[in-house]
Amino acid sequence: MLYDPTEHRIRSFVTRAGRLSTGQERGLKEFGPQFLVDYKKEALDYEKTFGRKAPVVLEIGFGMGGTTAHIAKVMPEKDFIGVEVHTPGVGSLLKMIGEEGITNLRVIQHDAVEVLRDMIPAASLAGVHIYFPDPWHKARHNKRRLIQAPFVKTLCEHIAPGGYIHLATDWEDYAVQMLEVLSAESALQNTADGYAPQPAYRPLTKFENRGLKLGHGVWDLVFTKK
What we know:
36% of the residues lie in helices and 19% in strands. It has 226 residues and is α/β, with parallel strands linked by helices.
């Protein structure tokens, strides 16, 4: 059973009206027509979208897109789909794609839960990346967190056997919740004894680097689909 997103469900994000920089506007106008994929209630044809057949990795909530662009460049053998709701981040990533000549990355500006339900074929993904999702750190807001059992089950339905889920967070109690939820999903297997070493392909962000220097923790989790 798919995690059915309805208008009454608790969303894990709040849409913010962000002001666009000149560069972000240019990214949307110049590179959007080529690299921005419209949300539609129909399965995405990966080969048609990328012009080749390759493993596809989905990233949910890419923020300003720096990490996404980096990973796509260091893993040219894979194709990447980045999903983000906030327009400044979408414009920022499109600008990087165009200016840096990244050909294996496409962007969808929409709610990732609905993208999963309507556009991602079952058992078709080689991997899913979710980095630093909103921790909703107040206890009364924990129910808004993205990483919950029903959503993880839905992710598993869209990942091919042998594919993986890679999560990262800098909130320890969210890391504990992530580990519990993923460990309880029978379709998944942990690649580590608890938290995973940071994979080489995931770069440190400036924010993350600053936090580490101050003694703050960062937790990675990598689970594979059985």
